[in-house]
Amino acid sequence: MTVRTRFAPSPTGYLHIGGVRTALFNWLFSRRHGGQFLLRVDDTDQQRNVEAALAPILHGFRWLGLDWDEGPEAGGPYGPYYQSQRGELYQAAVNQLLAQGAAYRDYATAAELQSEREAAQAAGRQFTYSRRWMAETPREAERFEAQGRQGVVRLKMPRDGELALDDLIRGEVRFAWASEQDHVIQRADGSCLYHLASVVDDEAMKITHVIRAEEHLPNTPRQVFIAQSLGYAVPAYAHLPYVAEPGSKTKLSKRKLDKYLKNRDFTALVDRGGRIAARLGLETTADTFNPVIVDFYEQIGFLPDALLNYLLLLGWSFDGEREEFSRPEMVQHFSLERVNRAPASFDPQKLLAFQDRAMQRLPLAEKAARCLALLQRAGLAGEPPGEEAQRLLADVLAAAGDRVKLAGDILDYEEFFVDDQSFPYDAAAVAKRISGPAAARDLLRRYAAELAGIEPFTAAALETHLKEFVERRGVKLGDIVHALRVAVTGKAVGFGLFDALAILGRSRCERRIGRALAL
RNA sequence: GGCCCCGUCGUCUAGCGGCCUAGGACACCGGCCUUUCACGCCGGUAACACGGGUUCGAUUCCCGUCGGGGUCACCA
Known about the structure:
The chain has 519 residues and is α/β, with parallel strands linked by helices. The chain has 21 helices and 12 strands. Strand 9, helix 7 and strand 10 form a beta-alpha-beta unit.
């Protein structure tokens, strides 16, 4: 039997980080077993603009490199892959359920149901529908309809016995059938609901393993009931613990950004992204720019592999020691047996650590390609970039080394990519390193005068020269290094000063020092 | 509240009866390196929720308590 897993997003307009982890585990499991991974759109509630709401989700999958064998755009032998287009299949299933007595037409009104519920609650009993408005024959149905009632189709759940479910992650889980409700599977207008559709599609699409978030665990009995009633082979279930809020065990939610911002690590991540977004002129509303949404990471220059590696470790472990996995290694080692049962809270710091290490391993050329895209978005490089810009980028990247942790961090070095007259000077840095120290301006002036004689104009030669310069003048290296850095970059921090000087070149250095002197 | 799930350092986790004076990673705190920042290196603080069993021996097995969470729709 070929392993087939699926991820069934509802077209909501964004890809939730927890959803990505669920998708990743599905993808990994299918790849591990040489099977297929499919995407199916759960749009049973018929939103108007499914395509538009689906686009960001597919975009996210593509960015992450989680390819799907069947689904939207990919097609496949079991399509269509949109539930809104599979109505006949659901109708047939409903008819079969009805014919077998596993479902019934029900004519209760919302108010009637409500009063039964309240009565049960008042009596301290668990609510179980009386089935008073159940129509088991066409004649009964006609009678109710004559009263102007609208019929829905409900599942006729067993009222005794129990279901022992063998979950691949949780082991055996038992549910008493009596505590299940007669859920509606088809509305009065004929449209079908998620649970029915999901079970019918999983069967039709030959899904062998349903790997999904824990919140679906309580839904499982009714799905098993539908599957069994229809004579389907029940798929294997694996319920993943959900991704929790930072520092809490509550499910991570897109809507609670304000709350998460009280968490220091989360705030650090948002601020980090915000700085980059500001330079890119991106909108930063919680709807689009939010670490709970995958787009956030793409926009500020995360590496997909780093995000995935982090997410992999959120609930799964190899041996407790090893944490770094390349894409093929993930596929090779993944197993459901090593998925943890407890929810795991999202830790922005650790994510950043994975990103940091992944970036350090990245060959310079690839790093440059990723940074270039951000530079272009910020308008600091042309499309295509000139040869000069590419050389500059490579030099800056080589000099910056580990400091560029996100592709967007390249924007911290924007001063190298702009005109000598345009880059800004940090006022505090100027005050501390140039205006403050009495000798700073004089040293800068004397140094600038010697620039013309430094040959070759390389980092090594510049260093030798500056050391000799400070010795000659009887000052310490620190007396001029800081002033010089501020003079040529506008900032108090940055990579090696000699690299900066060499990258800029002689004439740009002269111009910049001249500008700083006039400040 | 009913049903279900879960419970090892702040966080992610290893541990499937003795190897545990509980290991790794991130974070944190010190120190080193150093022209700033970052990296790197060295060291440190820090956890088995609690109570009963079972056993020669429990972090590991069982029960209970407590705690946390999920779910209870004509949403998905």
